[in-house]
Amino acid sequence: MISSDVPNAFAVAGGGQESIVVTEGLLEALEADELEAVVAHELAHLKNRDANLMTVAWLLPTIPYYLAVVAFYVLYGLFRLFGHGFGSRSRSGNGDGRGLAVAIVVIVVCAVVTLTVSAMFWAASVLFYRILSRQREYAADRAAATITGSPAALANALETIDGAMPDLPDRDLRKLDGGAEALYLAPLESRAFGSKELVSTEIFPDTHPSTDERIEQLRQLSADSGTRHGPEP
């Protein structure tokens, strides 16, 4: 349990240990059956090894992102050199100047190719990461409903948390996991991989399905369960 007013919970795994983290705000906001459903949701993440899966998936866009940054600064540094007259000196007509010019062209071409490929792979990796995250949330919701036998309890918990999250800061939670928000019960307001402009939801989906969609599916599970078991005698 951590001291935070943000009502949230998440699963972490590493070093042979697995843990579920809940906030004080979550304990205060939920009823006992709702809290049980939230813990079941996070247990499902651990049982399905989602913590390990999403950590690996998190690395996919991270590596090409930093490769693209390195390539960008290589190009930036070369253009700065050209801007200070380095290019004119390299075209002095001697062999060393021509060799240096060829080397610079090769470096520029390699940097441009690296930047382009890295940017494309980064975009594809972010899209994959977010789609995978959404699917794992749906799976954990269904598992929690099965474990507790009460899909409505998790639906009520999500509804309560969704109403409280916009009013509370989440930076304290972001510091705990380095930004991998995929295993949070509810998504954090701040965005992973940079600014909202860099990872626009018009191109990339959120890491979590909308709360309304999750609640609707849980309500449907509850209705289906009631239909199968029939009315109480």
Largest sheet: 2 strands, antiparallel
Question: Which radius of gyration do the C-alpha atoms yield?
Answer: 25 Å
Beta-strand percent range: 5-15%
Q: In order across it, which strands form the biggest sheet?
A: 1-2
Strand elements, count? 2
Characterise the protein shown here.
The chain has 233 residues and is mainly α. It has one domain. The protein contains eight helices and two strands. A two-stranded antiparallel sheet has the order 1-2.
Keywords:
233 residues, mainly alpha, two-stranded antiparallel ribbon, 8 helices, 67% helix, 5% strand, disordered C terminus
Layout of strands and helices, then pairs:
Elements: E1 9-14, E2 17-22, H1 24-29, H2 32-47, H3 50-83, H4 86-90, H5 95-148, H6 151-164, H7 171-177, H8 211-229
Helix pairs in contact: 2-5, 2-6, 3-5, 5-6, 5-8, 6-8
Compact description:
By secondary structure, the chain is mainly alpha-helical.
